[in-house]
Amino acid sequence: MNEIEEGFVIRKKGANYYVVSGDREVKCFLRGKFRISGDRDSVIPVVGDNVKFRKIEDSGSDDDVGLILSVGSRKSVFERSSRFGGGKRKILGSNLDYIFLVHSVTEPDLNLRLIDRMIVAAEHGGIEPVLCINKIDLSDDPEALKKEISPYINMGYKVLYCSVVEGRGIEEFRETLEGKRSLMAGPSGAGKTSIIARLQPELELKVGTVSSKTGKGKHTTSHFELHPLNSGGYLGDTPGIREFGINHIEKNQLQLYFRDFSDFRSSCRFSTCIHDHEPDCGVKRALEEGLISEKRYDSYIRMLKSLSENQRDF
């Protein structure tokens, strides 16, 4: 019997999982039920999962073919859920170091509320978010743009200002990626695929345009896969995201994923304060003193209300 080998999933197409093991890629299938280490529930592998597999002899294929036997525990997960309850969850990738949140200045317009939701999901999943503000060559007021983004810089998030047309920010993007497993996520038309093409042209990914009627991007990526980079590491593109649910996150835990609240939570009168209706709230006091962005606080309240409507227990 063939020995058990290890690798990680770089893409999934239909029932096929493509696993990188050493310097080769192996097309794999699933073996019945298997489990994530330490997890009692059977799960389906996702891109980024570390797996154990056994090579299938006499598969009838000239290429290596394997059978996935088990999935390793996940150090990080980027997932989204339905915005309207029901508990439906979708894991976009696992074992990632960075999530590059690619959003454009215009075409489509910058959406800070969507950015905030994706940051919360990244923080919840144990992944460091990096903001990439693309198409800065189209900005009418660069200084106003930087002021709008400044709260994220003040919170310690890395922010890249990019222009694929002019090549700005691409080298810094490349240096950040080196040796890491990363995913790019953002709305359709923001330029994710174009950035990958500029980083490594030989990938020859399909690049789309923005609809002149809706102002929204057209999907050019139909699935998520990790692409090996010449500089080391892997980078994945995802289908465009227009809405991003976070109903898999508990309401009373939401505040933990707002870094700008962290210095002020301890000064709240009540230990159970959620910084909404409670008196003598440290976060609301910081808001009044201009230490927390009004837009960020408004984003938090909107998320909190959404979670309250879709989750029964507090």
Present the secondary structure layout:
Blueprint: E1 4-13, E2 16-21, E3 24-30, E4 50-55, E5 65-71, E6 77-81, E7 89-94, E8 98-104, H1 112-124, E9 128-134, H2 142-154, E10 158-161, H3 170-177, E11 181-185, H4 192-199, E12 225-228, E13 234-237, H5 282-288, H6 294-310
Parallel strand pairs: 3-5, 8-9, 8-11, 9-10, 11-13
Antiparallel strand pairs: 1-2, 1-4, 2-3, 4-5, 6-7, 12-13
- Main structural class: alpha/beta
pLDDT below 50 for ≥5 consecutive residues: which ranges? 206-222
Largest sheet: 6 strands, mixed
Summed up, the domain count is 3
The average pLDDT score comes to 87
**Can you tell me the overall shape?**
globular
Terminal CA distance reads 53 Å
Q: Count the helices. How many?
A: 6
Helix content: 10-25%
The ordered H/E elements are EEEEEEEEHEHEHEHEEHH
* C-alpha-based Rg, rounded: 21 Å
The CATH class label of the largest domain is Alpha Beta
The second-level CATH architecture of the largest domain is 3-Layer(aba) Sandwich
Number of strands: 13
* Proportion of residues in β-strands: 15-25%
